[in-house]
Amino acid sequence: MSETTEVKVVKINLRNSGVVSWEELPGPLEQKHYDFSAEKKSSLNARYWYGIIFLLINLSAWFVRDYGQKVFPQPLYLKTCGHEGDDCFRTMGVLRVSLGCFIFFILMFLTTCKTSKLYEVRNSWHSKWWSLKFILLIMSLVAPFFLHPDIIQFYGELARVGAGIFLVLQLISVIQFITWLNKYWVPDEKEKRSCFLGLFLSTIFYLVSISGIGLMYPLYASKASCSLNIFFITWTGILLLVMMAISLHSKVNRGLLSSGIMAAYVVFLCWTALRSEPADPKCHSQKKASGNNDWTTILGFLIAIFAIVMATFSTGIDSQSFQFRKDEVRMEDDIPYKYGFFHLIFSLGAMYFAMLFISWNLDHTTRKWSIDVGWASTWVKIVNEWLAASIYSWKLIAPVLKDNKVMDHEDVAQQTDSSALP
């Protein structure tokens, strides 16, 4: 008689330092490994399909904003905004497309947020079943066009909050990436990494940052009357010096690379904020007339669209930056990234691109082939810049304060023990 051998896998969870459960996995281990590899590959490829979907929805929102009145029926346009409501119709169109995108990805979030293993049905729902998800996507995009304008207006107010949350999460992800770069290029004798490359890159980033500040003065603050722009640029320079001083402090000692990369990022945010200001010939020597749709305007617009998609995609796959515990063991059958977090970021990204297309203003919209232009957009980016510098500085200071607190606690404990001795 032949005996049947069953393969059992013990799952160990270090949180409780014990066995969680036994699960019988039928079939040889080689076949199971192949299945896990195939499922993991399918899961990783699915990320790019969701990114493409998000890009197409962004382009749809742009089309509805700039050319929607030529496509949609006249009664729908008149009922929503009246005879002279061009800006209203364009804003409502963007918000409706954004709401459809939000609905789709929030449904994906609700149906995948608890997924943890590759053999779960929810993993297949995330990585496969594209025909069914395509139908769900079409329904999600069409439904908002039948909703009352008051509901769309309420969603617009909500989208402001969601877009702000998205910006904060994106900042944390960027700062975590900068920190990783600093650790990767820091001198290490064990891995035979010298300080030359890190020092070289630090010099490049600081030269780029200083050059950027130097160029912004003649471009956006050429006259004394441009006091607001002078303040923005000067304060950015001060932030650079503060971050560099904190990074080089003896108790922090993080070197120049991370602060150099962060300096370049902060200068970039300041530059994008100044470019978002409304046209002013006195302070903007390179502002174009509002009616010119030349190739530079179109190219800049397309680059901005792809930047939105890449920012959403990169933040969505960076769930590790937002984990409270870093000591979890990765098993072979674990999903490669957090599906729920991925779809949640895309749903917030839907709110973010809506705000960019209408320049964070629910009453007016931007001109054709433009994106994120207006004083509201300018102040959002400036606040984003200040918040980025603050988060980075706190990330440098917090470990020092924590160590000092621990040392003070140990000193008090030692004094207490000494006083207790006879």
From TrEMBL:
Q: Which UniProt keywords apply?
A: Membrane, Transmembrane, Transmembrane helix
Question: Which Pfam families would you find in this protein's record?
Answer: Serinc
Q: Where in the cell is it found?
A: Membrane
Q: Which GO terms describe its cellular component?
A: membrane
| Record keyword Nucleotidyltransferase present | no
Coiled-coil stretches are none
Q: How does it sit in the membrane?
A: Multi-pass membrane protein
Its domain of life? Eukaryota
Q: Where are the transmembrane segments?
A: 48-67, 88-110, 130-147, 159-181, 196-217, 229-249, 255-274, 295-317, 337-358
Similarity remark: Belongs to the TDE1 family.
> What protein name is recorded for this chain?
Serine incorporator/TMS membrane protein
Protein source organism: Dillenia turbinata
